[in-house]
UniProtKB/TrEMBL annotation:
<dbReference type="InterPro" id="IPR050343">
    <property type="entry name" value="RsuA_PseudoU_synthase"/>
</dbReference>
<dbReference type="InterPro" id="IPR020103">
    <property type="entry name" value="PsdUridine_synth_cat_dom_sf"/>
</dbReference>
<dbReference type="Pfam" id="PF00849">
    <property type="entry name" value="PseudoU_synth_2"/>
</dbReference>
<comment type="similarity">
    <text>Belongs to the pseudouridine synthase RsuA family.</text>
</comment>
<dbReference type="InterPro" id="IPR020094">
    <property type="entry name" value="TruA/RsuA/RluB/E/F_N"/>
</dbReference>
<keyword id="KW-0694">RNA-binding</keyword>
<dbReference type="InterPro" id="IPR036986">
    <property type="entry name" value="S4_RNA-bd_sf"/>
</dbReference>
<feature type="domain" description="RNA-binding S4">
    <location>
        <begin position="1"/>
        <end position="68"/>
    </location>
</feature>
<dbReference type="GO" id="GO:0120159">
    <property type="term" value="F:rRNA pseudouridine synthase activity"/>
</dbReference>
<dbReference type="GO" id="GO:0000455">
    <property type="term" value="P:enzyme-directed rRNA pseudouridine synthesis"/>
</dbReference>
<dbReference type="GO" id="GO:0003723">
    <property type="term" value="F:RNA binding"/>
</dbReference>
<protein>
    <recommendedName>
        <fullName>Pseudouridine synthase</fullName>
        <ecNumber>5.4.99.-</ecNumber>
    </recommendedName>
</protein>
<keyword id="KW-0413">Isomerase</keyword>
<dbReference type="InterPro" id="IPR042092">
    <property type="entry name" value="PsdUridine_s_RsuA/RluB/E/F_cat"/>
</dbReference>
<dbReference type="InterPro" id="IPR006145">
    <property type="entry name" value="PsdUridine_synth_RsuA/RluA"/>
</dbReference>
<dbReference type="InterPro" id="IPR000748">
    <property type="entry name" value="PsdUridine_synth_RsuA/RluB/E/F"/>
</dbReference>
<dbReference type="GO" id="GO:0005829">
    <property type="term" value="C:cytosol"/>
</dbReference>
Length: 238
């Protein structure tokens, strides 16, 4: 969470006093004076000391294996949402999903109360790699691979960044592949394959940056991030 928000919440520091705290170097993060008020901190990753007092944050991070049919939203009148997949006591009011998956897409979703982290993970400049397993209704060839590498151009002229396509199995009726993507345009993978003349019939996200869909996360289940997983995200905390 934002460092100044944490200090305000826990030490009830008035505005002027807050400014002084930062100006006079009384805030230490991992032993170094921190001057950035909006610095994103988590006490599971950082030691936060303000005027000699250690502060603790209370952010939540869940990995969900989203089933098909569930919408990536906090509320929906018609369909079950990713928040509905959580036990009522885990439905923290600030939780939201980092990056959308379509209703018919299965796979890994990060749910967190840490909005700054979510923003950083989705920012195009950060180039966070997302990995998908895809089944399409036709053959895939080296020409498709080359087109993905080049950057697919949608029918409306939108150009995608280069993406990785690894063909695992190909036949005239159906093919399986792995796609590595750094962007998150609306229906991106479906549209990319449509440009190549085939239709996506199954899509599953298996990784978001260093976070991967592990065997201990059967479809429809969720768990808190392991400490090592949170540590693997430390570069996205600024
Ligand atoms: N691309 C898509 O087309 N759909 C998703 O859900 C994710 C990526």
């Amino acid at each position: 969470m934002r460092l100044d928000k944490l200090i305000e919440e826990q030490l009830h520091t008035p505005r002027k006093a807050m400014k002084r705290l930062f100006q006079t170097g009384q805030i230490l993060v991992d032993g170094k004076i921190e001057g950035k008020r909006e610095r994103n901190v988590d006490s599971n990753l950082h030691e936060i000391i303000v005027q000699g007092k250690q502060l603790k944050t209370n952010e939540v991070y869940f990995l969900l294996h989203k089933p098909q049919g569930v919408v990536t939203a906090n509320q929906d009148k018609q369909h079950q949402t990713v928040i509905d997949c959580l036990a009522p006591h885990d439905r923290h009011p600030d939780l939201y999903a980092v990056g959308r998956l379509d209703r018919d897409t299965q796979g890994l979703v990060l749910l967190t109360s840490n909005g700054q982290l979510g923003y950083a993970l989705m920012h195009p400049e950060k180039k966070v790699m997302k990995r998908y397993e895809v089944t399409v209704n036709g053959p895939l060839t080296a020409a498709d691979q080359a087109a993905f590498e080049q950057g697919i151009v949608f029918h409306d002229g939108t150009t995608c960044q280069p993406a990785g396509l690894t063909i695992q199995q190909s036949s005239s009726e159906q093919s399986q592949a792995m796609v590595m993507l750094m962007e998150g345009k609306f229906h991106q993978i479906k549209k990319m394959f449509l440009v190549r003349g085939v239709k996506v019939i199954a899509l599953k996200r298996t990784a978001i940056g260093p976070l991967t869909l592990t065997d201990d996360l059967p479809i429809g289940t969720y768990r808190r991030l392991y400490q090592e997983e949170l540590e693997s995200l430390v570069d996205y905390f600024h």
